[in-house]
Specification:
about 180 residues, mainly alpha, about 80% helix, globular
Length: about 180
Amino acid sequence: MKIFLSKFPASLKEFKDLRVLVSDAMLTALYVVAAFFLNIYLSPTSRIGFSFVFLMIAAKAYGPVSAMAIGGIGDVLQYVLAPRGNFSFGITLCTILTGLVFGLWLYKEKPTLPRCVLSCLTVSLFIDALLKTYVLKFIAHVSFKAEFLLRIGVVGLMFVIMTVVGYLVLNGLEKITAGLRRNAP
């Protein structure tokens, strides 16, 4: 627990750096674009999307503070630019918490397969399956059990997609940055 909490001061310090803020702005823009164009809607409350990749990249590179900011700002921008129904702070909170979880698991750590599995499992179980379903219960005016049963298959599929894509992207970025450091003058 102490290791997780020690990541906040370092992440907050990085968040104050202008280069990190510019990178965060770019990742927020990519997050919003991905949220618009890289989705497959299975029902009004269930979708397969790939905007999580940019939260994972921010979490790995800059920590939980940046990932939470990108999640919150990106979710609000997504609604402002193209609203789909009513705005729900509960959904935005779920996205912020997703950034927090990814930041706690991935920041300043090697993106190993077990670490990616655990971070994605935490997000899938606690945020997507339970918390987001609870929020959607109020938005869609359906029972928790009905919404949970409808979403559980999608959440399971998204867990696999998040784990595989996240692991491949984060390890690919790690190899690229290691190569850049080797070739730097």
